[in-house]
Write a structure and sequence with these properties.
The protein has about 100 residues and is mostly helical. The chain is about 90% helix and about 0% strand. Helix 1 (about 5-50) crosses helix 2 (about 50-60) and helix 1 runs antiparallel to helix 3. About 10% of the residues are buried.
Length: about 100
């Protein structure tokens, strides 16, 4: 491994070691917020689909009914990405969980 790569890995390791708790907390807050936003947008989309008057108001506003559908998908994808990052961070800190069958081996 080249010295530049090793220096970069060392910097990342230091950041993760020094700040793992705040990074984990921030990721968890991000995931919760994105999941909530996805649910809210999905609920708005469904409300517009169920009621033509609601849909008409939505479509006349800044956020159209179809916009709610797209926003829900984006927020959901963001939550998934954040959850994966959180799991990766936890696995890096604690090591990946062993399969119970492997442990009893």
């Amino acid at each position: 491994m080249e010295s530049e790569d090793m220096a970069e890995l060392t910097r990342y390791h230091k950041v993760l070691t020094d700040h793992h708790s705040v990074i984990r907390t921030a990721l968890w807050g991000y995931v919760e917020r994105m999941e909530k936003a996805a649910k809210e947008a999905e609920d708005e989309y469904k409300a517009g689909q169920a009621d033509p008057e609601v849909k008409a108001r939505q479509d006349a506003s800044y956020m159209t009914n179809r916009g709610y559908k797209h926003a829900a998908a984006l927020f959901s994808d963001s939550a998934k990405s954040g959850r994966e990052a959180l799991e990766d961070l936890m696995n890096a800190e604690l090591g990946p969980e062993e399969d119970e069958d492997t442990e009893q081996g």
